[in-house]
Amino acid sequence: MEPVELTGAGLSPLEAVALGQRRTAVRLGEVARKRMLASAAVVAAVSERRPVYGRTTGVGANRDVLTADPEHGARLLGSHSTTGTTSYPKDVVRVGLLIRVNQLAAGGSGLDPAVADAIIGLLNDDDLPDLHRGGAIGTGDLGPLAELGLALGDVIDGTSALPLLSSNAFTLAECCLAYVEASTLINVVPLVGALSHVALRGNAEVYDTRVHEARPQPGQVRVARRMRELLDGLPLRPARVQDPFGLRAFAQVLGPAVDHSDALGNSVRIDINAAAENPLVAGDTVLHNGNWHAMPIALALDSLRLSLHSVATLSTTRVANLVDPDYTGLSRFLASGAEASSGVMMIEYVAHDALAAVRSAAQPATLGTATLSRGAELHASFAPQAAALTSQLLDALREVLASELVTAVRAIRLAGLTPKALAPAAVGPWLTDALAALPDDLADRSLREDLEIARGLLTQWGDRQVEHPAEAG
């Protein structure tokens, strides 16, 4: 297979993750190579006439200290490679290197293409450096990028150290991975919700096109359309005129998560193709700027987490309805067998434990403050922390949804409903999958294995979905 060209444009978060996961060989595009050569010549010429931050000056509060020391770059990399002790996962490193090369290909850094070629060599040989978390607060991934500079060896000279550091590449890598995970997980929420709708004999009027045309919030409209696809033709008479919020407000709560997933995908797409360098080589000059500030990414991550918290909360309300005979007409806690059996009673506890983890991870990282480098840097976005919290939240959300899935399928079993009985509704084949995967033993026992199977089922369903909500519409 021919290597994929990195050109500084057109790379999507999904493509970046796919290239990293498949370990696809890459190369620097020829137009990008010429662009980088031209920008390197410009910054060299400009630095002969006036100070250029990090190249002929110190950094941070040392921005006013001029230097012509040929060892300046080596010292900069050495000092800035101070990090924490936790290594980035290899998938984050791999995607981060891809992103940094693609950013360099945009031609705003002033770095020679030999630097991009050296990073590509690490990628294509799968010789990934051990890079560490710590020291990044949304104003550039300084520590791990300095470690990368040291790993590149002689290709980084005294003038190219700072330009290499002018990026949030590894934070963006975590954003790409979180975006793919979030959009995939969001895409299976309707499948779980549809099974709960069946178990609770919900009223499908809530998804009527006219309802959502009356309030055309984009994500809400898309969720309602998906629910109609799953439930249209369902031959079950609704149990109620008006359902509890878990069913009635399903599209209104999941819809904003779809919108915020869109927003994150769009923000990340811009940044992984951007020459967000400081200083920026633009035409025949060099411009000092603040494009290293990751606030758009941090806010998109915070907003997504907050919206997913509501999705998780609504899921637990459906679990509560599913174990309540007043809503299902079934036994308390969907128990089977001897009197006072507990059934899925503990599922609610597991779901709320996971919900507590979702709630903790949903706290906005952008509320943080920072005053650094003798006051030279008075603000930070904390995008790296927002990205890490998003990964934590998604794992906990999966546990919440697994709890709902186990409970809904058990209720459907107890009600004696079969996939054939749901025809022609499209939810039927998904129920077939769930019934085949989850144990049919309804006696009191540990349901830990059921939850683990359900988590895996959610992953399988996500992989089978063609449309990612954040890539659609």
From TrEMBL:
EC annotation from Swiss-Prot or TrEMBL: 4.3.1.3
Alphabetic keyword roster: Lyase
Matches recorded under InterPro entries: Aromatic_Lyase, Fumarase/histidase_N, L-Aspartase-like
Gene Ontology molecular function: histidine ammonia-lyase activity
Gene3D superfamilies, per the entry: Fumarase/aspartase (Central domain), Fumarase/aspartase (N-terminal domain)
Top-rank taxon, per record: Bacteria
UniProt keyword Lyase present: yes
A Pfam match: Lyase_aromatic
Protein's UniProt name: Histidine ammonia-lyase
